[in-house]
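Bug #77: duplicate submission created two jobs. Keeping one. Sequence:
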Amino acid sequence: MAPRTKVLFSAGRFISQLRTPGNGIRTYYSYSHEPFHPLKRAPVWTSAAEAVSVIKSGDVVFVHGAAATPLKLVKAMTEHGKSSQLKDVTVCHIHTEGPALYAQPDCEGIFRANSFFIGSNCRKTVNDGRGDFVPIFLSEIPILFHREIIKIDVALVQVSPPDKHGFCSLGTSVDCARAAVQNAKYIIGQVNPCMPRTFGDGVIHKSHFDAMVDGIENLPEHKPKERSEVDNQIGKLIADNLVVNGATLQMGIGNIPDAVLASLKGHKDLGIHSEMFSDGVVDLTEAGCITNAHKTFQPGKIVGSFIVGTRRLFDFVDNNPFVTMCDVSFVNNIPIIAENPKVTAINSCIEVDLTGQVVSDSIGTRMYSGVGGQVDFLRGAAVCRDGLGKPILAMPSVTSRGESKIVPFLKQGGGVVTTRAHVHYLVTEWGIAYLFGKNLRQRAAALIQIAHPDHRESLEKAAFERLKCMPSLD
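Kept job's structure:
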């Protein structure tokens, strides 16, 4: 007779007890951490308040990010923390949408946000000392969970409704959320018909959830901001001079990457392999510019990890085999990026000194965003297998107050996300500086040439004082 197996369920895991002849009961773990694998268990359908009541003092809670932020669960968690007088609950995430109620001053001591990338809703919290920031490459966030450097007690995620096979989708944000659900002790899903069903790594069978909550609501949208003339000038410079037909593109967040996309309508056979993308990719796809025909990984498909945009973008990715949403440890893996043809990485920055050091996550000591995937893709483009990659950073030459963003010395406390050794192309509305292989004297000269004319004389003087010689391209 075959051995009999008894299955016991507990907090998102189960233990099988295998009875063998003469040996009594042998216990072993048989839980599959693979979210694609259907398990012989079912989640409890309940209210948001009941679902989050499992959170206790001292727990670490993961919150799904970007457009997938489970706002209903976040609100319920915050109310539970207050009413139950919880203490020292850590809430970890990349940038999230909505008001981040747990990060408000009235939740101090109850919750403490721990951001892997700072969104606008947690910026004040971090800078006031009520929240924390982890400097980390986006590609390495999953490692924190897999190696249990951060042990997740409860994961709050938002998913599409189960299909006929019981599979849900993490939808707009697979990024580090897949790793979170693989490692969390307890998983709560906000089930939302407004969440697009996407292909790729973000599929999770309903049996992996401990609790599910009906959570229909519109996803948070990012309406495109009105671009300035400077943004459009920079976008056109990059599109006309640095992006070639057949290039594989990565775009960061912001007006400048959006301006580049808007200027690419005349290009052909572009591919997308990018940690994130927004509405501009829809326009280029509809114009026939994006075919993904020459890509090495996932040829014929747009590859992303999370998306930020409007309902038009969400509808575009919904049930669309042209788009694959993948784990960020794959999308941002440098050797994988480098295998694609003509990798062109386009990212924004905040400040650059005359030697090429790049600040991207802070303004002086004030934390602003995070490390993100900038270095992942700049490096992937730099070591691109075909030798035709272009790592590009771009910014307006001056701040809104007219101060130069190319500076002799970085502001005190400014975070160097991209080192002087990583920089290849830097673009402002005044031109393109190519710094790779240039010595400090040559770098200073190239950067001064693309600084605002009002600041070039003072920068040249500062360069002489710093380098003890005149900056020169020769």
